[in-house]
Amino acid sequence: IMHMTHSIWVLHDETQFDSQEQEHRSVCVTMCTLFHWGEYLFPTLICACAFVFGLVDGQSFLALLGACSVLMSWTVMMISSFFDKIQPWNPPAWLNRHFGHPDELQRWGEKWCRLNHSAQKRQRHPFAITLIMLGTVFAAFDFRWLTISCLVILFFLFLRLLSMYKEGNFGWATALVEALIEAIFLQSLVISTAARPMLDASLITLLCAMRQFGFQREVRAGDRIRVVSLMGLGVVHFVIIIIVCLAFVSSFQATRWSAFCASPNIADCQFQHIGRRSQLSESYTPLCQMQFPIGNSKHLKIADFGLFASLTYEPIDRVEAALQHYFPTWRLDFALRAEKGTAKQPTDWSRFLMFTSEDNRTTIIAIRGTLDAVDVLQDISLWMIPAILQTIGLVGPDIGADCWGIAMARHANAFPLCSVSLQSTYASLLSVVLDMLTTYPDRTFYLTGHSLGGGVAKLVDLELTVRQVNPRPATIAFSAPGLMLASQVLYSGHVSSLEEFGSALSSISIKPTGDVVSSVDVELGSRLAAPCTGFALQCHSIYSTLWHIFSLCGSSATTHNVSIPCTWPVFDFKSKMSWERTIETYVTKHSEHACDD
């Protein structure tokens, strides 16, 4: 079986090993052999699993997809086993008259366009796997027409694999026709959906030509790069499709999760009172002592902004009651959320709440963080490139913060179908902020948010800084990603020195220890460290951050006599291995705490 590894991964070379026994001991040959066989068996295994799962779970379309895919995959494998016995078809007479030497054209196609049978099958395997996996996802979400579409495309792919055994010396002609049809379909799709139709269509044509003719066919490294890049892009494509499906499903579902108890009346919930601490750690003193003026010699502290940010995750009909519990003298002025089925639906994905103090001297705009798959899509659109650059830095040279990273982020919008604009990011929030600054020039404004909300708040602060708007609202962001590369993606180089604006930003980022999200991208502006002893996802929670600040600072972390719900999702910060679902379970296990009745 070791000699059956003649592929792009390991071409059998008699001079490569001193002996056959040495070749058998080679780990590379063994691994490449397993990959070579898995490349052919993987589609069948996926189809079989989809069929079995569809039967067990009662999903008929998933079972249909799996059964049809298994049948087509098995048919192709059986036909390929007696390929030598298949007689090629006789082309039309007019084709023979115009092309007297089709064998030479076929040899040219096999050398430069990968038209031999093994190469064609290998090229179509990743596409077939992607179709099967996408069909499985669509069937799992009960998107029937999308599932049928995947099945129809898979059937045409099946017919194409069968037809190539009958092409003979005229495979180059059918390949050209196939390429022409696919190019017309792709360009029509791009022109009808892209924001820059002609530019994107031209760039896609150029990239396709570069990919087709850019790798020397007789050099194994070229084919390896081709297959590995195709597999990597397929994985990214698959993940994004899953997120889009989740976003589509979640857009029709109302989120009723609340950090308070399930009782309709918040007053019926149990609360944990935040007591006073006599000694504070000097390393975290700013978290406890930093003050932000709101007029009449009053002020807010960092934990207060965290509580405002946490209110954005509450159901809209519970926000006012939750606000009255934390800040009895404040009121809810405005709430922007998705208004389904109305013409008032905003063009971007920003969701925020606006709170105003009793004396109308201060307004806090709190932006919601990542709560559903729609928010994840906005995360991807802004911070995917910084995350990719930092991931590359983990295994190779760090190119994220130097000129290479900035150049890649700045020119990201030049790629087809990948443009990110202000209008699709936070235009509604920026419009409200500018309008409020103009309408109430004597009022003090603050921006706050958690995760994605904090990142968007910092982007608004950067936009106001670039526009030289004064005075600007101060921004307090919790567990938010950085700005440098994301701002380059957004502005695409229209602002020459965004780094210079970093010192002028009025934003403060609260970064919990161990949080992964706030480590994405390079930070602009000020940053404060917050304690956390949990895992990455645990430390990212706004409730976990507030719980650690309260446990560190006590009542000095806030300007109000705060009691927090016992149903807050937190964990035991004394042990990394102990996950505590709520404060109530924590205080039950620790006698030094007690929830109030």
List keywords for this structure.
alpha/beta; 597 residues; 11 strands; seven-stranded mixed β-sheet; 2 domains; two-stranded antiparallel sheet; Fungal_lipase-type; disordered N terminus; Rossmann fold
Write the layout of secondary structure elements.
Blueprint (H helix, E strand, L loop, with lengths): L19 H5 L2 H31 L2 H22 L11 H6 L3 H11 L4 H24 L3 H20 L7 H23 L3 H17 L6 H31 L20 E3 L11 H5 L1 E5 L2 E4 H9 L8 H8 L4 E6 L15 E5 L5 E6 L5 H23 L7 H8 L16 H13 L4 E7 L1 H15 L7 E5 L5 H8 L15 E6 L13 E5 L5 H5 L1 H12 L9 E3 L17 H7 L8
Describe this entry's structure for a reader.
Keywords: Membrane, Transmembrane, Transmembrane helix. The chain is 51% helix and 9% strand. The chain has helices at residues 20-24, 27-57, 60-81, 93-98, 102-112, 117-140, 144-163, 171-193, 197-213, 220-250, 285-289, 302-310, 319-326, 373-395, 403-410, 427-439, 452-466, 484-491, 536-540, 542-553, 583-589, and strands at residues 271-273, 291-295, 298-301, 331-336, 352-356, 362-367, 444-450, 474-478, 507-512, 526-530, 563-565. The strands form three sheets. A seven-stranded mixed β-sheet has the order 4-5-6-7-8-9-10, with helices on both faces. Helix 3 (60-81) runs antiparallel to helix 6 and helix 6 (117-140) packs antiparallel against helix 7 (144-163).
Q: Please count the beta strands (DSSP E, at least 2 residues each).
A: 11
User: How many helical stretches?
Assistant: 21
Share of residues in helices: 40-55%
Count of discrete domains: 2
The structure class reads alpha/beta
What overall form do the CA principal axes indicate?
elongated
Largest sheet: 7 strands, mixed
The first-to-last residue Cα distance is 72 Å
Keywords: Membrane, Transmembrane, Transmembrane helix
Transmembrane segments: 40-56, 61-83, 127-158, 170-191, 197-215, 227-249
Domain Fungal lipase-type: 365-483
Protein name: PP2AA2 protein
